[in-house]
């Protein structure tokens, strides 16, 4: 296969959801379709499971959750699918957000009984910021859930995105009978006694009498026809351009646990989702179908995945060209060459060595400490990809080292964890005694921080939780900034010296925003 074809068949996406919506289950089913795993249950350690995928950290084992995100890949038909797994637990980290920068599209998984939940909303925002296509899978239709119209309304009201149902469910919960595929005009029948056995019936349309025969219940059928008519008349039209821009989300209905609707989703998704997309760089747009040279950026660093080896792995998203093991690339920030001799690939539990990879793929590079989040690697003329943003932490603590003598190890550890993106480090601004403040997206990161400083750097720290919930990067005209810096309380600087304002609550934040209309308050460090 030539490089063009290789790249064209790549689909790199992330699944975003709130914990318990069924992400692990859906991922397992997708891997099963791709033949990547033989039986479900090996993707990550469930509660009480003996098979924790990444048991690199004791916390993970203790809590039975996967703290770190990983990459799963499989072949399906001619497609080379890469799923970026984002931690599903409530205590997710900034890693989760950054992982989304490596994805070309996202699948938003929603529990049909619960609708749009908090974590989904946060992750959706990041996808929206990037303008990537978002596909929606309404899960758990085998249980009584919310009315599908209500769910569509919620997408619009809470997330501000219009939707186009690709299929429409017939019944729900006890009465769930199947899903009608509006595009292919197919009826997939749900058999509660044997959900894995899915009968597919081709129809001429929703009025086809075959549908009455297959469903059997006239009330359900007439309700379905009414709903579909309403959808045809009042719903949005299918618009590929809008889907590609992330303005319209195609909705699929199913039940991941019974594999119902999963293959239909996968088939449609692979056709509609984009191949590896262009990225902005200091040298203009890098289009993987035009740019010949190899290029990629680091979006995540994970240290000590295996405590026995003390390794550090940098995850690289290839943005153009072909990777070959042993190749030499330029590390643009350091201005030196690196030989990529020992890259790994992650699939479920195994780690294997990659010989070659293409734009769209993710590879893990063993790194002795040269790489940083946001670094660009290239062959040929140098350029750098746009800076990787930091996102507003939601939990803050003042940090101090318990034994002053260990200050050096403490600083080293903090530096490492900041580079990995596990924490954000701020300094108080214009205070008599400067203080370091740690900000994290998920509160579990505080435990991770304490644990890792102790086990890897032999340092004990003291964390004093602070009442802030929001950080906003602030910029604007010099005069207004000066007045802001003089009058606003709780200002800090980030590691690049940018001014960041911390707020206890939304009200406080709104007040400041109203008071300084000439200033911009950004939710992430990606100040444009
Ligand atoms: P997560 O990764 O998003 O956190 O969710 P996960 O797949 O672990 O699923 C959360 C729970 O929801 C699991 O039940 C799972 O079996 C269930 N589930 C997933 N998809 C469906 C579905 O389509 N229908 C129904 N009815 N349930 C579904 P659990 O009891 O918490 O765990 P387990 O003991 O079944 O593993």
Automatic annotation (TrEMBL):
Hydrolase found in the keyword field: no
UniProt subcellular location: Cytoplasm
A UniProt-annotated Pfam family: EF-G_D2
Domain Tr-type G: 8-277
One GO CC term, this protein: cytosol
InterPro entries documented for this protein: EF-G-like_DII, EFG_III/V, G_TR_CS, P-loop_NTPase, PrfC, RF3_C, RF3_dom_3_sf, RF3_GTP-bd
SUPFAM superfamilies reported in the protein's UniProt record: EF-G C-terminal domain-like (SSF54980), P-loop containing nucleoside triphosphate hydrolases (SSF52540), Translation proteins (SSF50447)
Name of the protein: Peptide chain release factor 3
Source organism (scientific name): Alkalihalobacillus trypoxylicola
């Amino acid at each position: 296969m030539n490089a063009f074809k290789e790249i064209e068949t790549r689909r790199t996406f992330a699944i975003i959801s709130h914990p318990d919506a069924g992400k692990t289950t859906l991922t397992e089913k997708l891997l099963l379709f791709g033949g990547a795993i033989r039986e479900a249950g090996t993707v990550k350690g469930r509660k009480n499971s003996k098979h924790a995928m990444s048991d690199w950290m004791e916390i993970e084992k203790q809590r039975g959750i996967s703290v770190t995100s990983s990459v799963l890949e499989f072949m399906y038909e001619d497609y080379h699918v890469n799923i970026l797994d984002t931690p599903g637990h409530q205590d997710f980290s900034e890693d989760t957000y950054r992982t989304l920068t490596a994805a070309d599209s996202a699948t938003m998984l929603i529990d049909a009984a619960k609708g749009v939940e908090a974590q989904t909303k946060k992750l959706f925002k990041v996808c929206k910021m990037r303008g990537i296509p978002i596909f929606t899978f309404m899960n758990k239709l085998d249980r009584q859930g919310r009315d599908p119209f209500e769910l569509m309304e919620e997408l619009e009201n809470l997330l501000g995105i219009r939707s186009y149902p690709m299929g429409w469910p017939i019944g729900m919960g006890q009465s769930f009978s199947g899903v009608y595929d509006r595009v292919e005009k197919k009826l997939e029948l749900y058999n509660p006694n044997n959900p894995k056995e899915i009968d597919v019936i081709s129809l001429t349309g929703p009025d086809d009498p075959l549908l009455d025969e297959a469903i059997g219940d006239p009330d359900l059928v007439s309700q379905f026809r009414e709903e579909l008519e309403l959808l045809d008349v009042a719903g949005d039209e299918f618009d590929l351009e809008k889907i590609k821009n992330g303005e319209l989300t195609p909705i699929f209905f199913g039940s991941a646990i019974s594999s119902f609707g999963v293959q239909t989703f996968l088939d449609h998704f692979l056709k509609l989702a984009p191949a590896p997309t262009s990225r902005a760089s200091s040298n203009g747009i890098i289009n993987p179908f035009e740019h010949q040279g190899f290029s990629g950026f680091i979006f995540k660093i994970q240290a000590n995945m295996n405590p026995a080896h003390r390794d550090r792995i940098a995850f690289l998203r290839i943005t153009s060209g072909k990777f070959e093991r042993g190749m030499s690339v330029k590390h643009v920030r350091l201005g030196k060459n690196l030989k990529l001799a020992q890259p790994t690939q992650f699939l479920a539990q195994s780690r294997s060595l990659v010989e070659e990879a293409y734009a769209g793929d993710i590879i893990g590079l063993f790194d002795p400490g040269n790489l940083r989040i946001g670094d660009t690697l290239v062959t040929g003329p140098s350029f750098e990809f746009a800076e990787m943003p930091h996102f507003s932490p939601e939990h803050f603590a003042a940090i101090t080292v318990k034994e002053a003598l260990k200050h050096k190890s403490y600083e080293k550890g903090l530096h490492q964890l900041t580079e990995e993106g596990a924490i954000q480090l701020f300094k108080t601004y214009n205070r008599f005694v400067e203080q370091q403040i740690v900000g994290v997206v998920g509160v579990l990161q505080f435990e991770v921080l304490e644990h890792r400083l102790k086990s890897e750097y032999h340092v004990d720290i003291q964390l004093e939780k602070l009442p802030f919930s929001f950080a906003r990067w602030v910029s604007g005209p010099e005069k207004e900034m000066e007045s802001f810096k003089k009058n606003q309380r709780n200002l800090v600087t980030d590691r690049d010296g940018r001014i960041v304002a911390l707020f206890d609550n939304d009200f406080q934040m709104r007040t400041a925003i109203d008071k300084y209309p000439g200033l911009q308050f950004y939710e992430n460090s990606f100040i444009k």
